[in-house]
Amino acid sequence: MTAVSGRRPAAPDPAVAGQAAEEDLRALFGQSTALFASLAGPAHLVETANPTFFASIGEERFRTGVALVDLMPELAGQDFIALLDQVYRTSEPQTGRDVRVVLGGGPHARETFFDFTCEPRRDADGDVTGIRVLGVETTQVKHAQRLMVEHRALLEQIARQAPLTEVLDGMARCIENLAPQEVLVSVLLADPDGRHLRHGAAPSLPDFYNQAIDGIATGEGVGSCGTAAHRREPVIVTDITTDPFWDDFRHLADQAGLAACWSTPILARDGGLLGTFAMYHRTPRVPQDADLALTRVFAGTAALAIERHHIEQAKASAEARAKSAHDELAKAVRAERELRAEAEQRAAAAAELAARVRAAAAAQAAVPHPERCQLGGPSGCTEAAEIKIADSWGDSAWGCSTHVEEAILNVRSVFIASEELGGLAAYLNR
């Protein structure tokens, strides 16, 4: 039979238990994508932190045993330090969602977002000795959400047929605002023959630069954009000062303060060249996966906007041609109607004249054949009336051969009328 001791097990030491819990947290978050930091005292000394924490704030700041505000001076003017002070003072945990934190300063400043929980650390007596920070960086998620919102707005602009310049300018500004580092966006539009590139949008590039490259040729070695348009594939120039593609434009880039240029061709669905989409940088830089993804998204959006613009232009041109043809047809119809009316008027006048001639001829036919010449004038003529003459107006007279010859020479459109032969028709059918 085994003897059982009557002593109770010793109560766990709170300090030892707390230290064990900290070690468990370090082990748990050591390789996690979530960030973890243990801060001590009211100055929030960085006692320990996992690699994710230092990766988020900048691995060059990998130090412990210093106050958080000394490690990250940019936090002094932000709300995060005040939140840590509140947790330390009140011993109440605090949580934050999509909290904006600007890391770094000057040209290297970058906007980040975090979801986090700040919990008080206590000693054996329950007093607050520090703060544990657990969180995850949500910058990419936040940027993706903003990207979706901006992209949807661009698609709505395209759908409502906003002017192409407005869409491209808005797209360029959107990318410049979304990019984690400073970037200057340019969109060039291809001529119909694909041989030259024209200014489309570049809201942040200087005017002299936009004017200088407006109309550049597409071809091998013509900067990043001319080469990308020629090759129909992206061209990444990470350092303009040394790349041979920029030999003819290096002075412009230097004057504009540009050090890198990544250009992507904008292609239609049938593979035709629509333009180029370029991202410029102030310092030499190699693109990251996020940069390339952003480029692909907006190059596709630009292609949609440009193709839609071309369709609308073709539609407007076709409508203008149809209207012009319609106007010309209407003009021809009006002219035809006027000619027809004029012809009808002339036909009516001719019919009226013919009727008058017939009436005059009938009246003359009813007059008896005179015995003496009627063409002698006021003094008269006693010669026999042997020949009848007439004119186109239906007037006729009889005269002698002498006066008939004189009348034919002096009076327009006078002809000899032969009653015996019955006129021209009788002569033709003789």
Automatic annotation (TrEMBL):
The keyword Glycoprotein does not apply. Residues 315-360 form a coiled coil. It comes from the Bacteria. Keywords: Coiled coil. Residues 150-316 form the GAF domain. InterPro entries: GAF, GAF-like_dom_sf, PAS_4. Gene3D superfamilies: 3.30.450.40, PAS domain. The keyword Coiled coil applies. This is GAF domain-containing protein. It comes from Micromonospora parastrephiae.
